[in-house]
Amino acid sequence: MIVFAVALALLLLACAALLFNVPALLTLSTLALAVLLALYFAVALLLAAAVAGSDDLCPATETIALKYVPARFQPIATYLLFDQSTLEAALRQSDLVDLGQIDGQAATLATSIVGNLTALLQGADANGTLASAAATANATLVGVLGSRDALLRTASHASFIVVYAGAKSYACCRVPDDMVTVRLCARIVSLSSAT
What we know:
This protein is an all-alpha fold. The two termini are 16 Å apart. It has helices at 2-19, 23-57, 61-68, 74-82, 87-94, 99-124, 129-154, 157-194. It contains eight helices and no strands.
């Protein structure tokens, strides 16, 4: 809207310069109007290119993204974008985290703690304090393994794809639609101001 007001002011200035025979003002206002129109059309060209580019790029976003993901993270990206395996398999394949080793260490630790506490309980725990400690340690380890499973569920494809689809929908649908709307409104305003 401001662009059209400035363009109208420059046109009026050019008409006044022509009417009062001031060639320098006529040249200056015509030059300013040409620069303004060139900028307006450059912005329109950028908007059109962005809309056309989003139409071409959005269907291939996942494929393009996978090209730029480092090789080490490819299995995880493939899992999150296409749900082609399990997260555990993707983590194992990417060598980031060895869940089997973590599970094994937790099981070994649990066995060791329970074994040591059981040996101590053989004759020294009359009031049940050590038995309570053993139960607490066992419950803590079970909780840790449960937390690991909860973490894997939270980082699942189903959780990720909801956020990803929303972001992609905004970038690929909403923004280009808004650009088309702005361009259409600008065109309507320019046509209505010209009549």
